[in-house]
Every structure is written in C-alpha cells, then in structure tokens.
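sanity check this:
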Amino acid sequence: MLKLENISKQYHSKVVLENINLEIESGEIVSLLGQSGSGKTTLLNIILGLTKMDNGRILFNDQDLTNVKMKDRGFNIVFQDYALFPHLTAYENIIYGLKNKRGSVSEAELQEYIDFLELKPHLQKKIGELSGGQKQRVALARTLVMKPKILLLDEPLSALDGVIKESIKERIKSIAKEFQLTTIIVTHDPEEALTLSDKILIIDQGNISQFGTPQEIIHHPKNEFVKEFILKQLQIKRQNIFQLFGEQYA
C-alpha cells in the first residue's frame, strides 16, 4: 500500500498542494485528475521523489520513504514525451536501464515483457521509425524491465488518438493486472480517468475534491466542482461514458 499523509507544497507564496491524504492499494490503477495547474503533476513528482514536499510523509508498505532519494524508492515513470533515445533501436532503449542492474532481469523475463507488449517485430527499428503507440509500448517495456514497485504515468494517452489510444488503455490495464503493479496516472481528461482507473483522485487548486471509484464520482459527485468538471468535459465524449455508466450520463 502507498500512503500519503498531509502532503503540502508551495512555490514562493503560491500553495500548490494542501494536506493531501491518500491510500492506494497494491495493484490499483489510480488517476490523478485535474485542470492545468491543479497540482496533480506536482503530486506525481513528489511520489516519484523528483520534487521535495514541504510537509507530510510518504509510506510504502509501512516503510517511510519521505527522505529516501528518488533512485532508491524503486518507483519508475513513463514521461509524457516517452524520453526515448532516437539514436538507439527499440531493443536498445528497452534494455538501457539494465546496464547498471546486471542480473536483475533474466532473458526469459525480458522476452516476456517484449511478447506481452507485442514488440518483437519492432525491436531493431530506430525510434523515428515507430508509430506513437509503438513508442509508448517501448517506453512501458523499458520501465517494466526495471521491475518498479509502482508505475507512474504522466499523461500517457495525450499524444495518441483513436484505436491506438484504446489499445494503450487496455495495455495499461493488463499490465496492472498481470504484474499486480500499482499504477498512478496523471491526466487532465475525465473520460480517460473514468474508463481506465479503479479509483480517481480529483484535485482542485491543490485540494482533494473527491477520491473514489468512477461509479461513485459519476453517480455521487461530492461537490459542484466535481459535477461541473466531469460532466461538462464529457459532453463531447458521449459514447464511452454511455457504455459504462448509462444513458443519463451520456
């Protein structure tokens, strides 16, 4: 379990996060959802260890990670732009992080990740030869081979559309289930959060507006912000929401 206790952060005089308390169970997919500037990316970076919080504690399986350096936390992130090396092949990108961790992943495990993400036909291609969805899968494979304790994804679907986006959604769900991997996703898109996550944390101006399942948020929004933010933005994405939550919300 990942537990956040009273996480606060401000830059100069601007409060970015205020007393964030959250518990995420092992294997859950949780989306951090909010408008631009709401504090969701800052919270992700605090969990990763990239950003230092002003107050609070982070615990993982009862171990206090508050002052543990990013490299020692065992969490890994897939950035929005994938951060792949264009001069390397897909395969070389996947194994790049293993150079300093020899023996941490067997050849059989490496092939399992490659097969799971259906990357075998693309291993010898340079990054510029790959589609957006293929790049995303390479980035996921590179992260998975490091055997992260928690997988962090920063806007993983923002550069994708149509069938490719739906395919990556299913991949992320499958990864969490197959490897019992706690997955935390930053997104500004309510439709993505509702159709991808087990639970959603809605952040508004550095505060938690609601934390719950997609069904709870759709059927029982806790305040007007949640109701307006979710329902207004979903008006242009009716079909997926109709299928999941019924006609009155489509």
Summary: The chain has two domains: 7-74+151-249, 84-147. The radius of gyration is 18 Å.
